[in-house]
Specification:
Elements: H1 15-40, H2 60-67, H3 71-74, E1 86-87, E2 99-104, H4 109-123, E3 126-129, E4 132-135, E5 146-149, E6 154-157, E7 161-166, H5 186-195, E8 211-214, E9 218-221, H6 235-241, H7 248-267, H8 273-276, H9 279-286
Parallel strand pairs: 2-7
Antiparallel strand pairs: 1-9, 2-8, 3-6, 4-5, 8-9
Helix pairs in contact: 2-6, 4-7, 7-9
Length: 288
């Protein structure tokens, strides 16, 4: 028997239901599109902040270029392109001898230039680690000079002790001064106060940086070469050029590193012999 038909007329479709289903369909399509884009487009990390004392760790390639330079590269350069040290009249009594004392600041462009040479020289007597990229202040002379920082760095050596003090960051605060980063010990402050004044610096230039004293005897105040040499160069370019003795960068940095090396050798008993007994360092020592 055929099924009976209802005698009630069929209700027309509710337009609101169609509208609701349409909205839900559009929302679902949008969600699918978002998921597909997230799967297809690779995520990107923000560029590491290089201002202030929180910088990107120095890549291994840069550190290798600086710390593994053979004598065949740095020996022929000599010391002609760098400033020799001053010899202090009264040998400073450092807490540990022989000691390499550096007092500088991250904002300082002259410190920025000198750090390249210090990194190379110190690597001849030990191992530096935990070095970070840095650049000098963007509002000072030679703005944004690329460099490294010794803040929170580590050093192991059987020959010398180092004291590396980065006194301030490279980003001024609201009052126009640079926030304090590290504070010299009372002994280090006394040494700087004793020698960072005339006749070692011009009148009115007391407290100049970088301040470098090797073995309580050999003194540099200021960079050994002009930061203009590094203008416009990246960290990788500077580290690479430091291995090319015919480049202006290589001649400047390696000459400065050789002067520092000779001062260290003169105060640590000329060790290691593989460094201190080389002709260029023996010659530089005789001129100290």
């Amino acid at each position: 028997m055929p099924a009976k038909k209802s005698g009630r007329p069929k209700a027309p479709p509710d337009p609101r239901a169609w509208l609701l289903w349409g909205i839900l369909g559009l929302v679902g399509a949008a969600l699918v599109a978002v998921v597909l884009v997230a799967l297809v487009v690779p995520s990107t990390k923000p560029t590491p902040k290089l201002l202030g004392h929180v910088g990107q760790k120095a890549p291994a390639s840069i550190m290798k270029n600086l710390t593994q330079i053979p004598y065949t590269v740095w020996g022929p350069v000599g010391t002609a392109a760098a400033s020799p040290p001053q010899v202090v009249k009264t040998v400073a009594h450092l807490p540990k001898a022989p000691e390499f004392l550096y007092i500088g600041a991250e904002w300082c462009p002259f410190c920025a230039a000198e750090r390249w040479a210090m990194t190379i020289a110190l690597s001849r007597f030990g191992t530096l680690s935990n070095m970070h990229l840095m650049q000098s202040s963007s509002s000072d002379v030679y703005p944004g000079t690329k460099t490294l920082t010794f803040y929170h760095s580590h050093y192991q050596s059987a020959f010398i002790h180092i004291a590396m003090v980065e006194t301030a960051t490279n980003t001024p605060n609201g009052s126009g001064t640079y926030p304090t980063l590290e504070t010299p010990t009372s002994s280090e402050s006394a040494i700087q106060a004793a020698y960072d004044q005339p006749p070692y610096v011009p009148t009115g230039s007391n407290g100049s940086i970088p301040f470098v004293l090797v073995g309580g005897k050999y003194l540099w105040i200021g960079a050994q070469y002009q930061p203009t040499v590094l203008a416009g160069l990246s960290w990788s370019q500077i580290a690479s050029d430091a291995r090319h003795p015919t480049s202006t960068v290589g001649q400047s940095i390696l000459s400065a590193a050789n002067e520092l090396t000779a001062a260290i050798c003169a105060t640590d008993g000329n060790q290691p012999a593989s460094v201190c007994q080389t002709p260029v360092i023996r010659g530089a020592e005789t001129r100290l």
